[in-house]
Structure to design on (649 residues):
């Protein structure tokens, strides 16, 4: 089991609750104070450097036009950390390829970071969350197609070393593709792809031998996703080594009371608001799902989850908190419930959770929880061995 | 009276199945409905069917028409409709297009208006009169649904629909229509940048009928549209928003009858 530190790099100093109509897409930048913001950027980067020193890996992401995530360009953060860290693997999860629209540029950026970090980069490539299509004006009915055309082109660009090739696809036309530098890792860095209950997509991720990652989902749903991944991996006779990743909110403290306080602050992330028109852009999900939406199946669902509170989130495995032994137990419980997984992506900072308390939780996790879960077997490898 | 479904057939054109509804007897009239897909049941269509044989095709991705993957915009669909017109051997036919259907009608007419007797565009999309910083067409995908309702209807109460009580087949069509609209019209948003430069090719008598309170494409937008079509006249219907045929059916029909006479 690999553990990864993550913060979405929030700028929480904006009106809270109903005082702000939207935390995303339309939130005016007059609410951003560069003096506070520059401190936050440096603080979050410091915490990633501390994660490296503690023996944790580092996960980065990017979002646009939002106070929930100051990292609007994850490759920039990855480039800084490639120099400032020594041992940690760095995973961008991910490059929102459907919204960025230029796979070749992503291939170049990632190859550079892979070289500077001397092969410590994992490259997540994602279709982008629904509300992001507005910032990029990407056609929401084609984000999955864009994702896969882009992924395949990036891999081809990374692994072609004999001069240019031609590519005239649906979304990208290049007649002289010839990426410099080639990646440090050969044949190329591991690719990670995120998803939810779209099993066809999960199978596609598995059949190509990439890592599948999912965030903040209850264990019963994740079990089905990971089962789909495992069975496809086995069908293809792939040896493993890629695997599955899950992200909960994690807070570790010396006492249960302290942990609960910290965890409560992390749930700030779950309260951030997005107006209805940005939550489900037309065609982002399929017709069947939208029929259910018209029938009112999802109305008030988010509010219902919020109302159920922390115990519910903890039971679902979306929120893990407590003393080190308790957190280790919760990770193992989740591991067992979903049939095993390989990467624990931990959102250990959110909202107003300050530097001191963030680092305290990270340190306790690294020193007292990580040793208890590190040797949980990489499930995919095991299955492959069993088959052999 | 026949139900709507009994009048619908599939017709094979341009390598795909297109849904076609035919109502009434008489001179042919091509009716191109809008993206909402709720209009085919409106009484004004039966009114038209008293005097015309009304042809109501569903564009690819709308109704039960196929949506082949190669179609990316309204320009593509206009060529499919030209094939359809040829197959049906329509001649001397009025063409009446509403909203998205108005845009489609304009696209068709710029390419071939030889089969059209008169062209009517009702609160149509399709052009962008202003510059890069102008929001010429209200961005209904970026506005709160209640706000969109107010922009579309003079009386927003009339625009409310009870979706949960509708049969699943109907909801499936509605959800698919919305998806298809986004597929074809997301970018450029609700217009074809080339269309403005082609509208001068329309030589048939053209009337633009517009709801006075249309907040999605305003009467000023309609005026700019009309100015680009030789001899076209804009007629504004009071007490109506984006759907004058639904909000003021009598005034609307009077205007239409007067022009088609």
């Amino acid at each position: 089991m690999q553990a990864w530190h993550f913060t979405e790099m929030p700028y929480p100093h904006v009106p809270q609750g109903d005082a702000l109509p939207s935390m995303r897409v339309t939130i005016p930048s007059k609410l951003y104070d560069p003096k506070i913001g520059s401190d936050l950027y440096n603080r979050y980067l410091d915490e990633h450097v501390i994660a490296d020193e503690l023996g944790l890996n580092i996960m980065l992401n990017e979002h646009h036009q939002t106070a929930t995530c100051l990292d609007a360009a994850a490759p920039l953060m990855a480039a800084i950390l490639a120099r400032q860290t020594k041992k940690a693997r760095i995973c961008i999860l991910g490059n929102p390829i459907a919204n960025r629209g230029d796979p070749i540029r992503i291939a170049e950026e990632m190859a550079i970071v892979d070289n500077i970090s001397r092969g410590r980069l994992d490259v997540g490539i994602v279709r982008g969350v629904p509300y992001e299509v507005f910032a990029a004006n990407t056609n929401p009915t084609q984000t999955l197609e864009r994702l896969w055309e882009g992924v395949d082109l990036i891999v081809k660009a990374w692994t072609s070393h004999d001069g240019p090739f031609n590519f005239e696809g649906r979304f990208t036309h290049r007649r002289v593709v010839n990426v410099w530098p080639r990646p440090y890792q050969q044949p190329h860095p591991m690719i990670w792809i995120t998803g939810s209950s779209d099993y066809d997509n999960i199978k596609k991720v598995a059949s190509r031998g990439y890592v599948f990652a999912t965030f903040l989902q209850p264990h019963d749903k994740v079990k089905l996703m990971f089962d789909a991944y495992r069975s496809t991996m086995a069908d293809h006779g792939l040896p493993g080594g890629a695997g599955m990743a899950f992200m909960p909110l994690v807070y570790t403290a010396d006492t249960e009371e302290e942990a609960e306080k910290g965890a409560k602050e992390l749930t700030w992330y779950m309260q951030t608001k997005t107006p209805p028109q940005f939550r489900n852009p037309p065609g982002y999900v399929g017709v069947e799902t939208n029929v259910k939406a018209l029938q009112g199946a999802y109305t008030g669902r988010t509010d219902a989850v919020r109302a159920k509170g922390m115990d519910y989130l903890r039971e679902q495995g979306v929120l893990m908190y407590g003393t080190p032994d308790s957190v280790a137990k919760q990770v193992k419980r989740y591991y067992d419930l979903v049939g095993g997984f390989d990467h624990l992506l931990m959102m250990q900072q959110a909202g107003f959770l300050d530097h001191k308390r963030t680092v305290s939780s990270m340190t306790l996790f690294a020193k007292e929880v990580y040793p208890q879960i590190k040797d949980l077997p990489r499930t995919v490898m095991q299955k492959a061995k069993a088959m052999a | 009276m026949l139900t709507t479904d009994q009048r619908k057939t599939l017709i094979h054109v341009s390598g795909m199945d297109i849904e076609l509804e035919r109502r009434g007897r008489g001179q042919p009239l091509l009716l191109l409905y809008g993206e909402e897909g709720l209009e085919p049941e409106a009484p004004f269509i039966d009114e038209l069917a008293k005097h015309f044989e009304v042809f109501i095709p569903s564009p690819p991705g709308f109704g039960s028409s196929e949506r082949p993957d190669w179609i990316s915009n309204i320009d593509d669909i206009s060529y499919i409709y030209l094939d359809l017109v040829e197959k049906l051997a329509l001649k001397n036919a009025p063409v009446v297009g509403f909203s998205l259907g108005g845009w489609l009608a304009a696209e068709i007419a710029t390419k071939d208006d030889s089969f059209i007797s008169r062209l009517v565009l009702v609160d149509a999309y399709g052009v962008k009169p202003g510059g890069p910083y102008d929001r010429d067409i209200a961005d209904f995908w970026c506005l709160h649904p209640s706000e969109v309702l107010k922009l579309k209807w003079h009386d927003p109460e009339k625009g409310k629909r009870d979706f949960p009580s509708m049969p699943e087949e109907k909801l499936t069509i509605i959800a698919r229509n919305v998806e298809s609209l986004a597929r074809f019209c997301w970018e450029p948003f609700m217009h074809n940048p080339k269309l403005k430069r082609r509208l001068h090719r329309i030589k048939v008598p053209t009337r633009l009928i517009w709801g006075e309170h249309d907040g999605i494409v305003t009467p000023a937008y309609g005026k700019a549209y009309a100015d680009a079509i030789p001899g076209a006249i804009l007629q504004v219907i009071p007490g109506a928003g984006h759907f004058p045929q639904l909000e003021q059916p009598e005034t609307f029909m009077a205007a239409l009858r007067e022009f088609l006479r």
Observations:
- The interface with chain A takes residues 141-145, 163-164, 166, 168, 171-172, 174-176, 178-179, 181-183, 186-187 of chain B (CB under 8 Å).
- The first helix of chain B runs from residue 43 to 49.
- The longest strand of chain B covers residues 16-23.
